[in-house]
Amino acid sequence: MRKINMMILALSMSGSALAGGMNDDPFLFMLKMDKFELRDADEGTALAWDAQAWAGRDLNKLWLKSEGEKLSGEGTEEGNLEVLYSRAIAPFWDLQGGWRHDFRPTPDRDWLAFGVKGLAPYLFEVDATAYVGESGRMAAALSVEYEYMFTQKLILSPELEMNLYSKDDEEVGVGTGVSDLALGLRLRYEIVREFAPYIGVNWWNKFGRTADYAEAAGGETSDVEFVAGFRLWF
Amino acid sequence: MSPSRRRFVQGLAMGGMAASLGLTSRSLWANAEQQQKMPTLRGTDYDLTIGEQVVNFTGTPRIGTTVNGSLPAPILRWKEGDTVTLRVKNNLPESSSIHWHGIILPSSQDGVPNISNGFHGIEPGTTHTYQFKVAQSGTYWYHSHSGFQEQTGLYGPIVIDPMEPEPFTYDRDYVVMLSDWTDEDPTVVYAKLKKLSHYYNFNERTHKDLMKDLKEKGLARTWSERKMWMQMRMSQRDLADVTGYTYTYLMNGQTPADGWTGLFRKGEKVRLRFINGSAMSFFDVRIPGLKMTVVAADGQYVQPVSVDEFRIGVAETYDVIVEPDDGAYTIFAQSIDRSGYARGTLTPDAGMQAAVPPMDPVPNLTHTDMGMDMSAMGHNMHGMGGMDMKGMDHSKMAMGGMDMKGMDHSRMAMGGMDMKGMDHSKMAMGGMDMKGMDHSMMAMSGMDMKGMDHGPHPMGGKSTPVHPSDFSSGKVVHAPTEYGPQVDMRAAAPRYRLDDPGVGLRNNGRRVLTYADLRNLHGTNDPREPDREIQLHLTGNMERYMWSVNGVKFNDAEPLRWKMGERLRITFVNDTMMNHPMHLHGMWSDLETGDNDFIPRKHTVIVQPGSRISYRVTVDAEGGWAYHCHLLYHMLGMFREVQVS
Ligand SMILES: [Cu+2]
After folding, report:
1. Is 0.90 topped by the overall pTM?
2. Where are the domains of chain B?
3. Which of A12, A65, A230, B526 is most buried when burial is the number of CB atoms within 10 A of its CB?
4. What's the topology of domain A28-233?
5. pLDDT digits (tens, 9 = 90+) for A2-60
6. CA of B198 to nearest chain A CA: how many angstroms apart?
């Protein structure tokens, strides 16, 4: 809790009123639903989300991130929430640190998170985070996204996501090494900047021990899904 | 000014509303008659009331900020030598102010809250009285310096009649005020830019452009042309932050649909006083079928120059004289990013209109606009910290002047720059053979490298002496404060580009005004050489939408302290991809155009992207002054306080 108090203090430090009552760096809030989609999976229809929110100023922000997927009829299959303090360290890069809580699958897991988020040369959007969990577990997550503009409003967006773990964790079904990799391709139409429905395909694969655990539990280890959803922010 | 007179002077905003009601052509005719008469207040004594009023430019009623019920605010017509008294009442629910743009006056009358001596804004319900002697003549304007009130309508023209006869004649005199209107709340516009800086840009290069390039130029050239942009994470179409997507461009308060009308009789000479009173928009102005003779810039006479087109930056003014024949002409002012235009008609008959030309194609920024064009051999690359130029293809550089085959760059002090593999071998530089030349020799005196902009860069050896009046040399130094998350680019080879009309106007087949064309009609006002030079870098991070000077935003900056009586050279280096109209309050900016004998005076100077430009300032006005970029949403950070004592 003290950590969070300190973050809030840091967020409110910059910016003051100036000539004519103008402030170049107002306190702002943004909610982004990058993905909210239905996935046509082998095991049924799944609902997936990838949402982020931030509050703060130009160089210091508090971020909330949540990602997850829920199969119809069952409970949440995967889901996590991250709370991160974010600080700009370079023109295109933010350093982010905080806490991640995996609330699905059970039992839940907590991690300390430390990563970078930003825009790489050639305009790749990158989010790379390393995690340290209980009993010395380590993990890493990487996501890379690109935008190709067919028109000003029709945008094709390829994406790569992958996860790595340092130790087997049979209870939650992840194994050492690259546990899973997903490649997505989404075509969205920005009706307005803030709202864009999309369709796409998503291919994912589980590897090594992670795949073994999934097989043992009677699940899939690889799938190609058609997706349909929307992006929203304000 | 009698009350009845003030009531008579109603808003042009109402003209806009009337036209949108779908009137018959007969009443449109009457409307045109009405429109040519912008509300004008004359004399030495003024009562101005800042208030709010419903306006309708887009079909949706909105609240605008008005003066005496008018948007734009009424034309104030002063006379040189008079002392004017202006009582400004603020009926807004928030603090307000009026700044007299380009007017030379005491700091206390300048109207910038908390910077002008003793002035802290006009509180709601109160009246503030300005009083000063009018020491100049020409075309100027006034606007709010509080919050975003300038965006919502608080701007109006000032015309000052001279004491001496003017050096040119004309039969009619019209103000043509250009501006931009948005139905959105400006604070929302600003927040959107912070969240997604390209929010309003619907001119990005797309699949179609890529296919066209691949077809015309092939893969290798297309790649090499686009590579640096992608590496630097920048857009070649970063021309305007706020665009026609939200803006309706206005001419004298009239939308393009309605159009402002100026009447003339055959054979008459018409003087048009162009004022760019917009918050964020540069305009490229032309009148198809007519030559324009530019006779004044920023209110000051210049030697007449005949052009087809000129670019007017935010806050600049240009007076032109046209001699129309017996027909109708469109005054066409397209925004710099071609996302819209303001329009008016010069016509002998209010019922007659001319065709509206199509907008020009959307231009692409070039490496020159990035300050990365090495073709002038600007070797001042020490500001490129960390940039990887491996494999950078110089093969297409046209370098007129020198053969640098085998040139050894190894001794250049370039802090962290990796130029491994840089291929200079194909540089066609005809003329001077520098084969095998080692650049450690570059400190050689007497060698004519004009145009090469080698400046006194740190290359070992002594630096070339710089003559004070040789404005085109001088070292470009990127301050340590320019490094950090707040700055996304530093121009490596910023060049004087006075004869460059700017992106979108190059080689368009028309004679376009450039700063190199501006020559003071009466010769240089103050021939003294500068005592010292101040270099100011215009910096920003487009992705984060942060703007600053030397990497430091206004909130964190110390005031610039200047000494009364000194003569300064201000050199601007633009380390961003955008044009910034820099405005110094209270003192003239004597623009160094290369001709020392006819230095023109300006109050607002466009600094082109990736360029440098300089002017002299005679520090002759005591007190606090604002110094800033006149783009409203840049100004919050790209701002300095000047203290003269
Ligand atoms: Cu600017």
Report:
1. no
2. 31-165, 166-201+237-362, 480-644
3. A65
4. Porin (2.40.160)
5. 554 555 444 444 333 344 456 899 999 999 999 999 999 888 899 999 999 999 999 99
6. 10
